[in-house]
UniProtKB/TrEMBL annotation:
Source taxonomy: Bacteria, Bacillati, Bacillota, Bacilli, Bacillales
Coiled-coil ranges per UniProt: none
Designated name of the protein: Winged helix-turn-helix transcriptional regulator
Keywords assigned: DNA-binding, Transcription, Transcription regulation
InterPro entries named in the record: ArsR-like_HTH, HTH_HxlR, WH-like_DNA-bd_sf, WH_DNA-bd_sf
Amino acid sequence: MAQQNMCPRFEKAVKVLSQRWIALVIYQMLEGPKRFSEIQSGIGVSGKVLSERLKSMETEGIVHREVYPETPVVIEYSLTDKGRSLEPVLRGIENWAEDWVEVKN
């Protein structure tokens, strides 16, 4: 890929993935489909912010939103093929963090 075509794509990818909570939401969903409340309690994000991030990821084609017409309505989120393709990237960050990131208590 030519340098002129790579930079805008790379920049957009970094912009999408660097939004607060996005990578953690994707990472959590690698295990399989999740309901909103499962994602929220798993990472401790506010409902408003999580809703915004999920909508953004749905627009980007990273997440699929499935509505089950039950009472009450059940909504489940899962990764699309595009979203699942981020697994090696996130696992790489996970491995790098284990080796190089220090967490202070």
